[in-house]
């Protein structure tokens, strides 16, 4: 596989631009804190800002804003021809079948990880000598399992089935808002990765519901990652629901 082919994939460009955005966010906060006379390094605000700038860079790199940018500026929107073969599923595509497969594949990719977390928790409960976890670590593992199963397996799989079959069932060529449909999918991988890395970043012992006051008093970066991840996936499911309902009633 040629390097040029890999770099042409929107997913790869999104990762690269996401890393660039993260570095820019870190540098920006360090510079502002230094100019304000505060200690340059403080993990909380620096990493939280880096998450948002990295997310914006990722979405720009993927190209989900391209259509709306041309619309807002009044410039002619040159539609790119869809990539062929397997490359379509790693790039922005407005075809409802492609997006449906992307959702389904994403859910199935995260499923083994969620099952693995549950197995770790069950083995620890059965025999703590096999896997020793602290109370915080155990609660983080089980909480992350619940969140990923609900937000990264159930919701994407359901959204994938709806995207694939609803237009076919009602005789529509596509969903009502195909560009919004593409945008909502690309929020899901970002939210899922934030949920996965939340364990590495200190975890969270709030339970999978993330209810306050526990979620507001927990300090490690992991709680920020999981909260932003859940918000992203929640926005994706809300926009998908609006899109599907509009398709059913208006198309």
What does this structure look like?
The chain is mainly alpha-helical and 251 residues long. The protein contains nine helices and no strands. The longest helix is centred in the middle third of the chain and has 36 residues, at 135-170.
Features:
single chain; 251 residues; mainly alpha; 0% strand; globular
Task: Provide a compact summary of the structure.
With 251 residues, the protein is mainly alpha-helical. The protein is built from 9 helices and no strands.
Chain-wise SSE layout:
Layout: H1 3-7, H2 10-35, H3 43-62, H4 66-73, H5 96-126, H6 135-170, H7 178-200, H8 214-217, H9 221-250
The fraction of residues assigned to DSSP E strands is: under 5%
End-to-end gap: 41 Å
Shape from CA axes?
globular
Uncertain segments: none
Helical amount among residues, as a percent range? Answer: over 70%
Structural class: mainly alpha
Number of helices: 9
Order of helices and strands: HHHHHHHHH
C-alpha-based Rg, rounded: 20 Å
């Amino acid at each position: 596989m040629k390097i040029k082919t890999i770099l042409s994939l929107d997913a790869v460009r999104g990762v690269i631009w996401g890393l660039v955005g993260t570095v820019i966010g870190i540098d920006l906060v360090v510079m502002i804190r230094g100019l304000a006379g505060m200690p340059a390094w403080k993990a909380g605000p620096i990493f939280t800002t880096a998450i948002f700038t990295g997310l914006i860079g990722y979405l720009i790199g993927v190209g989900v804003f391209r259509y709306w940018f041309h619309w807002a500026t009044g410039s002619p929107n040159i539609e790119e021809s869809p990539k062929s073969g397997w490359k379509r599923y790693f790039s922005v595509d407005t075809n409802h079948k492609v997006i449906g497969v992307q959702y389904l594949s994403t859910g199935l990719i995260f499923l083994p990880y969620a099952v693995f977390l549950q197995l770790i928790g069950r083995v620890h409960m059965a025999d703590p000598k096999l896997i020793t976890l602290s109370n915080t670590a155990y609660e983080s593992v089980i909480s992350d399992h619940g969140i990923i199963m609900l937000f990264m397996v159930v919701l994407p799989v359901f959204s994938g089935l709806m995207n694939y079959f609803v237009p076919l069932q009602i005789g529509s060529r596509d969903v009502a808002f195909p560009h919004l449909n593409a945008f909502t999918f690309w929020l899901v991988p970002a939210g899922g990765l934030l949920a996965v890395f939340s364990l590495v970043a200190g975890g969270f012992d709030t339970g999978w519901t993330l209810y306050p006051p526990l979620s507001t008093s927990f300090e490690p970066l992991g709680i920020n990652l999981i909260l932003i991840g859940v918000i992203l996936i929640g926005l994706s499911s809300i926009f998908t629901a609006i899109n599907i309902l509009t398709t059913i009633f208006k198309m």
